[in-house]
Write a structure and sequence with these properties.
Length: about 180
């Protein structure tokens, strides 16, 4: 019985003698692979940082140039010239939509005549249109420059002699549209 425990000890010692160096070798290989992955990641990040630094430098050069936001304003030095520009835009939008222009006029204002000029310019336009033409006018006004906002919209169905499609009647539309002009600083 004395030989059996000694054989088990030899086998266990031999297994440990092989397993420990083998485990150390596997650990070294895994560590090396992780280090190479980390190195590749660091290289990619360094290239990304370099690209961002170049882009920031380019943008920094452009930052010196002032941004021109004048396209959002109506052209014209004074209120009357800006109103004429707004009228031209409204008449053009109605004509482009194949609607029939009735009139353009200055809407009644609730503003105090002694109030300081804030650059707002409003006009009321009245036209006859079908649904598609109305949508075209609205789309044309709200998706263009200068920036225009529709302050009020009124629509009513026009009576017809029965010759038109009841699903797509002619509408009398009144819009109050606001634009802004650049005020002197």
């Amino acid at each position: 019985m004395s030989t059996a425990p000694s054989n088990i000890r030899r086998v266990a010692t031999g297994a440990l003698a092989v397993a420990i160096p083998l485990g150390a070798l596997v650990f070294a290989i895994v560590s090396f692979l992780q280090a190479s992955d980390a190195s590749e990641l660091a290289d990619r990040q360094a290239r990304t940082v370099e690209a961002l630094e170049r882009r920031v430098a380019r943008l920094g050069d452009r930052a010196d140039a002032r941004r021109d936001a004048s396209a959002i304003y109506l052209q014209g030095e004074g209120v009357e010239l800006a109103r004429a520009e707004l009228q031209k835009l409204l008449v053009g939008a109605v004509a482009d939509a194949d609607a029939r222009l009735i009139e353009t006029q200055e809407p009644g204002s609730d503003l105090d005549p002694d109030a300081p000029d804030d650059g707002r310019v409003e006009l009321r336009v009245t036209f006859d249109a079908r649904n598609d033409a109305l949508l075209d006018v609205l789309h044309g006004l709200e998706t263009r420059l200068p920036l225009l906002t529709i302050e009020r919209l009124e629509a009513r169905r026009l009576d017809s002699g029965g010759a038109e499609n009841p699903e797509d009647p002619t509408l009398r539309v009144g819009l109050v549209v606001r634009g802004h002009r650049k005020t002197p600083a």
